[in-house]
Design brief:
This protein has helices at residues 2-27, 174-177, 373-376; strands at 104-110, 113-119, 123-126, 135-138, 145-148, 152-156, 168-169, 182-185, 191-195, 208-212, 219-222, 240-247, 253-259, 271-276, 281-284, 298-301, 307-315, 321-329, 335-341, 345-350, 356-361, 387-392, 398-403, 405-409, 416-420, 422-424, 430-432, 439-443, 451-455, 457-461. It starts with a helix and ends in an 8-residue tail after the last strand. Mean pLDDT is 80; it is low at 1-80 and 88-94. It is built from three helices and 30 strands. The strands form eight sheets. It has a four-stranded antiparallel β-sheet with strand order 3-2-1-30, with no helix packed on it. Strands 4-5-6-7 form a four-stranded antiparallel β-sheet, with no helix packed on it. The protein has a four-stranded antiparallel β-sheet with strand order 8-9-10-11, with no helix packed on it. By secondary structure, it is mainly beta. A hairpin with a 6-residue loop joins strand 24 and strand 25.
């Protein structure tokens, strides 16, 4: 009874203090602020492209021997269409602060317009409206974007406003305007090259369009590079084909070129050339060609501008194919050659430190199959898509991750964007799906924190300056 009395007395005293506090707030005209519990979310963790058919050498003897054998990946678990799907759930992490500075900014095309999304806040917004764009590219300093609508090359800022640089009418006819052309900037932003990612077999298709932005009005329309000094075939016969251009840190323009004489059924051997726009000539690039051709059409440059990566897939049939990959150190002028047997690599994302690559892999030849998930969802018209693989370039060690195409590594090294057809289950696992449309996803380099951005194509990260790189 005594303890009950003490409890009742304490309760009355507490109620009295609350009453006095309420009277005090009322007298001071201060509102009582309710306390709410803010729910936590799980943000993404840090981290169009058609697929070209495999390149086919004219004979097996033309393949360059491998100087450094690559450790092949361990057998993947059995799965539909040889796709390994890691069962990974998004971990619960604290909610990011309100209006944080974006760790990275991603641009992509959707319905002919450019959208921007900030990571990790995942806030996206369109910066063009009804632009009917075919392609775009960030400037090297990330201050603006170049856009191509099939006829004109124009420039915009991140907020969608027009840039001071005037648009350039490229003088393309309606047929030429239907061809996809991608954009490459020079480091000083005084020149742009638009290039055709599909071999320009058609007469007048135009492989490269070199556009000077220095006010000179210089515009080179390169159809057959043989007319510009390229010498790849006996007697320098017509039939040269331009591949992918790339500006090196010193401003020189290089590119992969081939000739119809070096092509099979839609597949070609490519070699590296330098292009002199003033002298109007192509000169073989001195990346130790005596050690073998670079072979592939696709070229990449490491973030620090030191490693030039060149690769291409070659097929001798659906059961025999490989990918040739060449890493050339611009400083030491040394080469590292890889021969990936029974591999068809369609795309590579190079880590900012140049230590790892993420490879997108496909079947070695066209195998139309409406029942295949990647074809059914519209991700690929005819090539089956397999799991992407992360590879350490020093050890050759590889690990599987989600299936997808067109991987792009963010400049800070924290994120990888790619396209795929994935759906998330109630338990948080991501699985391949045949129900499209294909979407743009981002994930951490370790495969965690995957998140869907949007449907769309051509994901491209905004360049940033990394002083420690």
């Amino acid at each position: 009874m005594k303890n009950s009395y003490k409890f009742l007395s304490s309760l009355l005293a507490c109620l009295g203090r609350l009453t006095i506090l309420a009277l005090f707030l009322t007298a001071c005209n201060l509102p009582a602020v309710p306390v709410t519990v803010k729910p936590t979310t799980a943000p993404v963790l840090a981290s169009q492209t058609p697929i070209s058919p495999g390149l086919q050498p004219t004979s097996p003897s033309e393949a360059v021997p491998t100087e450094q054998p690559l450790n092949q990946s361990s057998p993947m678990p059995e799965a539909t269409d040889n796709v390994f799907m890691p069962k990974i759930e998004n971990p619960n992490t604290p909610e990011p602060p309100a209006n944080p500075e974006p760790a990275a900014r991603l641009a992509f095309l959707k319905g002919g317009d450019i959208f921007l999304v900030d990571v990790p806040s995942m806030q996206s917004r369109p910066i063009t409206q009804s632009a009917n764009l075919v392609s775009f590219a960030w400037s090297p300093d990330g201050s603006r974007l170049a856009t191509f609508d099939g006829h004109k090359l124009c420039f915009i800022r991140e907020d969608g406003s027009s840039d001071a640089q005037p648009c350039v009418d490229l003088g393309l006819d309606d047929m030429q305007a239907t061809i996809e052309r991608r954009i490459v900037w020079s480091p000083d932003q005084k020149a742009i090259v638009l290039w055709n990612p599909v071999n320009p077999w058609d007469e007048g298709a135009i492989g490269w369009l070199y556009v000077a932005l220095d006010g000179s009005g210089l515009l080179h329309r390169i159809d057959d590079p043989v007319d510009w000094g390229m010498n790849l075939a006996p007697n320098n016969d017509p039939g040269g084909i331009t591949g992918q251009p790339l500006f090196l840190p010193d401003g020189s323009l290089i590119g992969t070129l081939t000739h119809r004489w070096l092509c099979g059924d839609g597949s070609c051997h490519f070699q590296l050339f330098s292009f002199d726009p003033q002298g109007r000539s192509f000169i073989p690039y001195p990346n130790k060609p005596e050690e073998g051709w670079s072979e592939g059409m696709t070229i990449l440059l490491s973030r620090d501008g030191q490693i030039l990566l060149n690769f291409g897939a070659f097929s001798e049939g659906c059961e025999a194919y490989f990918t040739f990959m060449d890493l050339y150190n611009l400083g030491s002028q040394t080469r590292q050659l890889y021969d990936l047997d029974q591999e068809a690599v369609s795309g590579i994302a190079l880590s900012p430190d140049g230590a790892r690559i993420l490879m997108a892999r496909t079947a070695g030849c066209n195998q139309p199959d409406p029942a295949n998930w990647s074809q059914a969802c519209g991700l690929s018209p005819s090539l089956n898509i397999y799991s992407m693989q992360m590879m350490d370039l020093t050890s050759g060690q590889r690990s599987d991750t989600f299936p997808g195409i067109t991987p792009e590594w963010s400049p800070d090294g924290g994120y990888i964007a790619f396209r795929s057809c994935l759906s998330q289950s109630g338990s948080g696992n991501w699985d391949i799906t045949s129900n499209g449309p294909p979407g743009i996803f981002i994930m951490a380099p370790d495969g965690l924190g995957i998140s869907l951005i949007s449907d769309g194509v051509s994901p491209q990260w905004k360049p940033t300056h990394l002083p420690n790189l």
